[in-house]
Specification:
This is Peptidase A1 domain-containing protein. The chain has a 19-stranded mixed sheet that branches. The protein folds into two domains: about 40-230, Cathepsin D, subunit A, domain 1; about 240-440, Acid Proteases (Cathepsin D, subunit A, domain 1, Beta Barrel), CATH 2.40.70.10. It is α+β, with helices and mostly antiparallel strands. Helix content is about 15%, strand content about 30%. The chain has helices at about 1-35, 100-105, 200-205, 315-330, 380, 410, and strands at about 40-50, 55-60, 65-75, 80-85, 95, 130, 130-135, 140, 140-155, 160-175, 185-190, 210-215, 225-230, 235, 240, 245-250, 270, 275-280, 280-285, 300-305, 310, 335, 345, 355, 355-360, 365, 375, 380-385, 390, 395, 405, 415-420, 425-430. The N and C termini lie far apart (about 60 Å).
Length: about 450
């Protein structure tokens, strides 16, 4: 009997020990597990304006060990491409092998060999894509590869801890493709509508919404910001810029707008539906067929960060500038000689300064109906050449360009644009100057 009760006591004490040690494990485990599996709700990267080229440049860390890279931001770019010929050293570089899942994700056709010693960008039995310098319109072939990439998470107000994607897909490119890009950059960061551009790769790596937002700064000395994931998008002094968005549909151009592409490939760029243009209250008479995308992919309106200024097809340019000059003349604003690349310039003599920039006629892009307007005030329409001269920051794109209206970087500055890939919708704020903030007001001081 005694031995039976001893056995029972022993069994119950073992059970007690087991259950209490499991309890202790349970209490300890969640915190360490949470640290390992921290999943960010959003990511943030800085974007600066290069004074010499007027290109927008972002910074991210890639490779093992990590190397900080400067990259020209290309809103409609198809993927990340980097120069792999110069100083590409990484223990985690892996080329994508022919017919692999990576190749199909990158829509990479064909299968190539390399006829020199293996190195990043030059390996046998790999698939290739066409990295595109969209500033110069030059494209070449490049090896698809993957490597580690790290970026800061955010709660929308500050950067948080750094997170990594261990196998981020990108394309190698030869050094010559960097010609025409800002000094010191290593490639281009594509945010376009493909499965391997930054927004889709980040969304699938961290299981967040396929949304991202850009906020370009007008300053060449302070950073603007790009968010991947949903808002809030908070700018000092504690203004959530995502609360002041109007929405318009995004359209897919069925024909690629890249420098080189395969037949049947749609464009990776972001198009919106401009129905008409107004200067103040007056509708500008334009050929409205130019405002739609035709079956060959011509026409329509796209948003671009590689064009420094908005480019208008020549007949639209003439109509808009004539209407603008007439409205300016009614305010006693005098026209002066043009200053390249601008055709339409004015004396600053009768131009008052306001919170929204020079007080000039307002340009409205009328979207899906008369109540949805993209308003372009003086801060985004006028470029100061000197104290005495300011010019309308729109350029003539000539006859029969591929896209009738290309909204360029200057017209996007200090405006929050949110691209929602899942619902194919653009959210856009009017100028943030109206809310007493700017795109350089994101607080890049990290939270621990």
């Amino acid at each position: 009997n005694r031995s039976l009760s001893n056995n029972l006591n022993m069994a119950s004490s073992i059970r007690f020990l087991l259950s209490s040690s499991l309890l202790i494990l349970f209490l300890i485990a969640p915190t360490s597990y949470a640290q390992q599996s921290f999943r960010p709700k959003a990511l943030v990267i800085p974007v600066s304006k290069d004074a010499a080229t007027l290109q927008y440049v972002t910074r991210i860390n890639q490779r093992t060990p990590l190397v900080p890279l400067s990259l020209v931001l290309d809103l409609g770019g198809q993927f990340l491409w980097v120069d792999c010929e110069q100083n590409y050293v990484s223990s985690t570089y892996r080329p994508a092998r022919c017919n692999s899942a990576q190749c199909s994700l990158a829509r990479a056709s064909g299968c190539g060999d390399c006829f020199s010693a293996p190195r990043p960008g030059c390996n046998n039995n790999t698939c290739g894509v066409t990295p595109d310098n969209t500033v110069t319109g030059t494209a070449t072939s490049g090896e698809v590869a993957e490597d580690a990439l790290s970026v800061q998470s955010t709660d929308g107000s500050n950067p948080g801890r750094t997170v990594s994607v261990s196998k981020f897909l990108f394309s190698c490119a030869p050094t010559f493709l960097l010609e025409g890009l800002a000094s010191g950059v290593s490639g281009m960061a594509g945010l376009g509508r493909t499965r391997i551009a930054f927004p889709s790769q980040f969304a699938s790596a961290f299981s967040f919404h396929r949304k991202f937002a850009i906020c370009l700064t007008s300053s060449t000395t302070s950073n603007g910001v790009v968010f991947f994931g949903d808002g809030p998008y908070v700018l000092l002094p504690n203004i959530d810029a995502s609360e002041s968005l109007a929405y318009t549909p995004l359209f897919i151009n069925p024909v690629s707008t890249a420098s080189a592409y395969a037949q049947g490939e749609p464009s990776a760029e972001y198009f919106i539906g401009v129905k008409s243009i107004r200067i103040n209250e007056k509708v500008v008479a334009v050929n409205t067929t130019l405002l739609s995308i035709d079956s060959e992919g011509f026409g329509g309106t796209k948003i671009s960060t590689v064009n420094p200024y908005t480019v208008l097809e020549s007949s639209i340019f003439s109509a808009v500038t004539e209407a603008f000059i007439a409205e300016a003349a009614a305010r006693n604003i005098t026209r002066v000689a043009s200053v390249a690349p601008f055709d339409v310039c004015f004396s600053s003599e009768n131009v008052l300064s306001t919170r929204l920039g020079p007080s000039v006629p307002t340009i409205y892009l009328v979207l899906q109906n008369n109540n949805v307007l993209w308003s372009i005030f003086g801060a985004n329409s006028m470029v100061y050449i000197s104290e005495d001269v300011l010019c309308l920051g729109f350029v003539n794109g000539g006859e029969n360009p591929r896209t009738s209206i290309v909204i360029g970087g200057y017209q996007l500055e200090n405006t929050l644009l949110q691209f929602d890939l899942a619902t194919s919708r653009l959210g856009f704020s009017s100028t943030l100057l109206g809310r007493r903030t700017t795109c350089s007001n994101f607080n890049f001081t990290s939270n621990p």
